[in-house]
Amino acid sequence: MILTELFDEKHIQIINDNISQITFLENLSNILFEEGYVTKSYANSLILRENQYPTGLKVEPYGVAIPHANSDQVKKSVIYVSIIKDGMQWGNMADLEDKINVNIVFNLILANDEKHIEILQKIIGLIQNQDFLKNIYESKTPKNILFQIRKELKK
Amino acid sequence: MKTIIVCCATSMITSSVAIEKIQNALDKEGLKAKIIQCKFMDVEGYIDMYKPDLIVPTGALKEDKAHGVPMVRGTNFVTGVNEEQTINKIIDIIKK
């Protein structure tokens, strides 16, 4: 699948409430399960994985996380983007002892047949672009976030 | 030839990205190394098997899992922050 097709407006959310990381991951997994993207056990493996090996990345100007679980539990690929306005405590991928404040989450829900490396490399490109991170954090609507993502991926 | 184990948590995604960057850097320097990819849970077994000279985990692999083998954290390959510094550390160990 072409990378831009992995993003859609329905799977972009702006969170203004103060929720815990576990609630966040559970809610998201439940939605994806109901929509047929993942298996029922996806939530557990995603949460377990974050616990053991967190995916929070210390980048500027906003911390980013890229949670992803084993492809075996994925039926259909999608990238779920969440903007967390007040930030969320997240484990640092580089250091188990460290917590970072994450405002932007790219949940990579990738089936076995996707070109994982290519996709991640593109996502890494996005994460490293400070202007892009600022633009999507400040976007008022999922529609605008999607527009920013598509614009950036076209470059 | 030196051996490098590049590993990540479960899905082999971030380690694949790291391997590509390490391989490019080695090629640029005209260096050759054997690169083994595995999951964190398999690292200890692979250390016994391959006796690596270096371990590059992309995530938070605990130090004691390396059994004394030098470790260079490869999370920078995902964030892009200080990537060159990480590459230089790896090259230094391979050149030794």
- Strands ordered across the widest β-sheet of chain A: 1-4-5-3-2
Structural class of chain A: alpha/beta
Oligomeric nature of the chains: heterodimer
Strand content of chain B: 15-25%
Q: Helical residue percent of chain B? A: 40-55%
What summary fits the major beta sheet of chain A? 5 strands, mixed
Q: For the largest beta sheet of chain B, what order do the strands appear in spatially? A: 2-1-3
Biggest interchain interface, per-side counts: A-B, 28 and 23 residues
Question: What's the total helix number of chain B?
Answer: 4
Main sheet summary of chain B: 3 strands, parallel
Overall body shape of chain B: globular
Q: Could you give the count of β-strands of chain B?
A: 3
Poorly predicted tracts of residues of chain B: none
- Whole-number mean pLDDT of chain A: 94
The radius of gyration of chain B is: 12 Å
Q: Which H/E pattern describes the elements of chain B? A: EHEHEHH
Rg of chain A computed from alpha carbons, rounded to a whole number of angstroms: 14 Å
Q: What distance separates the N and C termini of chain B?
A: 11 Å
Q: N- to C-terminal separation of chain A?
A: 18 Å
**Share of residues in strands of chain A:** 25-35%
Note the main attributes of this structure.
heterodimer; A: 155 residues; alpha/beta; 5 strands; 38% helix; globular; B: 96 residues; three-stranded parallel beta sheet; 19% strand
Walk me through this protein's architecture.
The complex is a heterodimer of chains A (155) and B (96). Helix content of chain A is 38%, strand content 25%. Chain A is built from five helices and five strands, in the order βααββββααα. Chain A has a five-stranded mixed beta sheet, with helices on both faces. In chain A, strand 4 and strand 5 (95-109) form a beta hairpin. The longest helix of chain A has 14 residues, at 21-34. Chain A is globular. The two termini of chain A are 18 Å apart. Chain B is globular, with a radius of gyration of 12 Å. Chain B contains four helices and three strands; from the N terminus they run βαβαβαα. Chain B is α/β, with parallel strands linked by helices. The A-B interface holds A 49, 52-55, 57-59, 66, 68-71, 91-96, 108, 110, 116-117, 120-121, 124, 127-128 and B 8-14, 16-17, 20, 40, 58-62, 73, 75-76, 78-81.
